[in-house]
Amino acid sequence: EPEVTQTPSHQVTQMGQEVILRCVPISNHLYFYWYRQILGQKVEFLVSFYNNEISEKSEIFDDQFSVERPDGSNFTLKIRSTKLEDSAMYFCASTVQGNQPQHFGDGTRLSIL
Amino acid sequence: GIQVEQSPPDLILQEGANSTLRCNFSDSVNNLQWFHQNPWGQLINLFYIPSGTKQNGRLSATTVATERYSLLYISSSQTTDSGVYFCAVVLYGNNRLAFGKGNQVVVIP
């Protein structure tokens, strides 16, 4: 069964540095998402992406964050000038259509020191 | 925004016992999914169930969309069922998943 793949599985970064989290969505899917989960808390929506542009974003997704689909397969989340509170598990998801099930990757655990 | 409430927040089960987890949501939805988060943090998709009933092995789920709730049944629980179960919904008109706070389940041998 096709899967959403995320790299790296764990990223450790110094505060203030930039980090790029990478995702390869399922190949025939058209909608892409990033979510985050701070340790011990619920999963929160960050941003959705469709037709090469952001379709929706949450209040968490401020100017520090950006997303990109640089080629036909990758979907990236960039966090500029990381802060301690950016430490979390970041999940990528994709779906073929907006009201169909979203398929999640295994996540990238980001630790900011 | 939409409210998603899960109960009970914590549950301890003896291996072999059955249990029911509940998810209430505050508005009409066109997508509802149940996930199991394992100890490694992976979100495992259990059910896509905006309405009706589905079964997968020892797990089954029922969503009554008109009454805005969903139930996840675990039968003959095993220690591998331990983890956090999340309910997540998508409102009509958008496509973001809104998650509940989860049900922390511990199955003891």
Short description:
Chain A contains no helices and eleven strands.
Structure commentary:
- The complex is a heterodimer of chains A (113) and B (109).
- Chain A is an all-beta fold.
- Chain A is built from no helices and eleven strands.
- In chain A, strands 2, 4, 5, 6, 9, 10 and 11 form a seven-stranded mixed beta sheet that branches.
- In chain A, β7 and β8 (75-79) form a beta hairpin.
- Chain A is globular.
- The model of chain A has no long low-confidence stretch (mean pLDDT 95).
- With 109 residues, chain B is an all-beta fold.
- Chain B has a single domain (4-108), classed as Sandwich (Immunoglobulin-like).
- In chain B, the strands form two sheets. In chain B, strands 2, 4, 5, 9, 10 and 11 form a six-stranded mixed beta sheet that branches.
- The model of chain B has no long low-confidence stretch (mean pLDDT 95).
- The interface between A and B is medium-sized, with 27 and 23 residues.
